[in-house]
Amino acid sequence: MSWNFALILFILLLVTGVIWGLDVAVWRRRRRQRVADVMAHYDAIAAGPAEVVAQERERALEEARHVPWWIEYGVSFFPVILFVFVLRSFVVEPFRIPSGSMLPTLQSGDLILVKKYSYGIRLPVIDRKVIETGQPERGDVVVFRYPVEPEVDYIKRVVGLPGDEVAYLDKRLFVNGQEVKHERADEYFEPDRMLYTTRYKEHLGDVDHSILLDERNYQALGPITNFPFRDQCEYARNGVRCTVPEGHYFVMGDNRDNSQDSRYWGFVPDQNIVGKAFFIWMNFSDLGRIGRFD
To answer: Helix 50-65 vs helix 28-44: angle between axes, to the nearest 10 degrees?
Structure first.
């Protein structure tokens, strides 16, 4: 969806940019010349009553200055579209959270901002990285194009980096053989499912964040898709163990029991990553949620 919008925005930018350029280079000069010709013509004649001549002169000048609506709109909208295109392509892009897979960090309906430059500068539309500015770290919340359906945007937390061994066994997370500790915090009400789930504090990488987890109930992993590098994962009754391929990342939702993530459909290629999510700029149901998050 975001890719389609970027393409539409680029086409609008191209069309309005051509109109703006032609107006500056050609049409504006022609209008000024028409105005000058009209003024010279009426300055050279003195026939008829002065009031009538003045009215005719004003009408002729108005016609000479006339700008077709499509030129007027194109010239007016070009700087606005250019600003939005540059801002959205290289600085920040807004997204809407569609589900509760990232609860309690992000709720359905949160409107968030994503830094596009955190992991590299990419050419718009073709999405090719041209300047390296950084790499995702464990604990980062990232927006990416869903590998199964690249036209759909997903948001999850980075758990495993290229080369890491990630295991999720008996609802416990291990990275490179070390258990990622979590401590019980309180009970959290899930608005999507209308029930309470235990909230835990987890330290992943350099980030302290909250997760939701029901350790009492067994979680079956399935269905599992036949994703690229599927042979890098081993599935068992109590969970999954994967080695993350180069150029890929293992991601999970903070709502561990209710998130379709790398456990089910595999790894996220680096070229699919859109940027790092960092700010909730609006939630119309709860204005108190506005602000930064980890």
So the answer is: 170
